[in-house]
Amino acid sequence: MQTPTLQEQPIQLHTFKPPVAQTKGGWSLPKVLELINLPFNDLLFKAQQIHREHFNPNEVQLSTLLSIKTGGCPEDCSYCPQSSHYETGVEASKIMDVEEVRKAAVEAKKNGASRFCMGAAWREPKDRDIEKVAELIKVVKSLDLEACCTLGMLSAQHAESLKEAGLDYYNHNLDTAAEGYSDIITTRVYQERLDTLENVRNAGVNVCSGGIVGMGEDRESRAALIHQLANLDPYPESVPINNLVQVEGTPLFGTKELDPLEFVRTIAVARITMPKSRVRLSAGRQNMSEAVQALCFMAGANSIFYGDKLLTTGNPDWERDQALLGKLGILTS
Fold first, then answer.
1. pTM beyond 0.85
2. Which of 115, 188, 193, 208 is catalytic?
C-alpha cells in the first residue's frame, strides 16, 4: 500500500538536487560526494522523503542468515575470521545436512523471517557443492520462504543451476571501493566481484550486494563504494551495509572504529541513490545503540538480519529486536 509522501516543511535545505535517472551512469562520483557531505539533518530529511516515495516508512523486512559451511576459506579478506590465513579460533566445518537446515529455516519463519540466507566459506563452489546447495534451496522454498545464498564467486553455469533450484537472491558484496580493494583482499581482483554479479543477473536471480565500512577508509571511499553500487545496471535489489566487526587474529583487528553518524550517512546515501532497494543493516548492528539503529531506519534502512548468528559473529537476539521495533512502532515483513 502506497504511503503518503512527507509534506514539505518550511525549512531551508541545501541546494543539492539528485538527477532523475537512477540507471547506469545516473550518479557521478562528484554528485555522490556532494550528497554524503550534506549537513546531517538535510541528508536524513532527503533520504526519508525518498524512502517514503517507495516504501512504508514504518516497516522492516526480516532476514535470517545461517552459516551452512564455516571456516577454512582460502581467501585472505582482512576482515574475515573464516579465512584460513588467520588464527581466529574458527574451525573449518563441512556443509550442513538437509535436516539441520530445515530445522533452522522452520525456526526462522516461526520468528517472523521472510528471507532465509545461507552462507558458505568458499572462494567459489564446485559442482558437487552446487548440487548440495540446490537441495537446501528447495527445502527453504518448500517452507514458503525467500531463499538467498552467499557462496563466493559464481560461474554463469552455477548461477543458472541455483536459479533452477529456486534461488531468489544471491549475495556477493563489493566490500569496498575499487581503489582500495587490494588493500583489503589480495587473493582475487575487483573485476571478479563484478563478473559474479553479472552472472547472477544474467541468470535472472535478484542481486544482493553492498559493502563493509569501518575498515579504515575515508568518507570519499565510502562515497565511491555507493557510487559503484548505484551505477550497476540495474542497481541491486538488496543492499547490505555492514559495519566492521573486529575479530582478534584478523589484520583489521584494532582498526579505529567508525563514527556512528558516518555509518548513518552511508545508509542515507545508499537510500537516495538506490531508492527502490532494500537497504539492510547487517553485520555490526549488535554493537549499535538503539538510538543509532533508529537513525538508520530514519535514513532509509528497511531490512535487518536478526536471530542467533550472523555467520560467525553474534547478532541481537529476537526478543531484543522485537522490543526495539516495538518502541519505534515498526512493523515487520
1. yes
2. 208
The whole-angstrom separation of Cα 260 and Cα 288 is: 8
**pLDDT for 318:** 73
- Cα(59)–Cα(138) distance, integer angstroms: 28
Is the distance from CB of 198 to CB of 243 less than 8 angstroms? no
| pLDDT value at residue 316 | 52
**CA separation for the pair 57, 60 (Å, rounded):** 8
Please tell me which residue in 115, 148, 188, 271 is annotated as part of the active site. 148
Identify the active-site residue in 222, 280, 285, 296. Answer: 280
Query: Which of the residues 73, 149, 265, 278 is marked catalytic?
Result: 73
Residue 120 Cα distances to 72, 82, 99, 276, angstroms: 10, 10, 17, 28
Give CA–CA dist 74/296, Å, rounded: 34
Q: Tell me: the pLDDT tens digits for 100-158?
A: 999 999 988 888 889 999 999 889 999 999 999 999 999 999 999 999 999 999 999 99
The CA distance from 43 to 37, in Å, is 8
State which amino acid sits at residue 202: N
Active site residue 77: yes
Residue 317 corresponds to which cell in the numbers above?
A: 537476539
Nearest to 281 by CA among 256, 245, 258, 306: 306
Q: How far is CA 244 from CA 7, 80, 118, 240, 249, in A?
A: 36, 10, 20, 12, 14
Query: Cα(163)–Cα(260) distance, rounded to whole angstroms?
Result: 37
Q: Active-site residue 80, yes or no?
A: yes
